[in-house]
Amino acid sequence: MRIEGSLIRETRERPLPPNMRAATRARRGRPQVRYRPIVRSPEDVRSLRHHGVPVFLVTDEWVTQSRYPVQFDPWLAVPESIAGSFDSAYRILRIRDEDALRRPGLAELVTWLLRFDPLAARAVALRNRKAIPALELYRRIRNEGLEGPATKVRLQQLMPAIPKVGPSLPAKDLAWADRNNPELKPAA
Question: Looking at residue 147, what is its pLDDT?
């Protein structure tokens, strides 16, 4: 069995442009317009956000702006409840806390990076230690259930309140990774 959410347009809301949606099969009962948002470009993500759909495109440029130079293919961060209803060219990053998608900051970035690159999450957290509210980081990690990956890269050094779940990487290996991660040089 598979649980799948869908987006339903309220009568007072403006519809998405036709090129950004695909119809799904109708269900019995009162007719509702159901559709699958189509996301092929950053402009599509901006348009969806403009229409109130909680989505965000996690790009390597955003991580690089956070003082950790890296390259990866973008991820489309969407609420877990409607993740199955997107037709996207991007990889889907399922987010439990829909509010995190409204105005994501460094705490959200660190939390999302824990899902696919925990060492990058640690590097961003260490390099932006003063800019990340510790309680916000704690709350986001707990809401997403990522205490295990946080423990693996020892984020408890930044926020001791994060529960330790599972094994951690050896401290000397993390120290080596911290020393050898590329530092973003300021533009001269």
Answer: 96
